[in-house]
Write a structure and sequence with these properties.
The protein has about 70 residues and is mainly β. The protein has one helix at about 5-10; strands at about 20-25, 30, 35-40, 45, 55. Strands 1, 2, 3, 4 and 5 form a 5-stranded antiparallel sheet that branches. The longest helix has 6 residues, at about 5-10.
């Protein structure tokens, strides 16, 4: 199901009031500033912070030095 493009032009992030990007494949509205994805169900954007998916939690950890060296004290 598609979201009306006129509706997309009016919607903003409920937290920062910034513009949103529509991910048609994932059926989500993305706020790049707050790194949140709001679901779209049956063509209706669900703009509740409690329903938003945290995009930073989905990112893989950055490789770097580990604090745990595996050596027992």
């Amino acid at each position: 199901m598609r979201v009306d493009s006129r509706l997309l032009d009016l919607l903003v992030c409920p937290i920062c009031k910034g513009s949103l990007q529509y991910d048609r494949d994932a059926q989500e509205l993305i706020c790049p500033r707050d790194k949140l994805a709001y679901p779209v169900r049956d063509g209706i954007p669900l703009m509740l912070v409690d329903l938003a998916r945290d995009l930073t939690a989905a990112e893989p950890p950055v490789a770097g030095p580990r604090a745990d060296t595996g050596v027992a004290a």
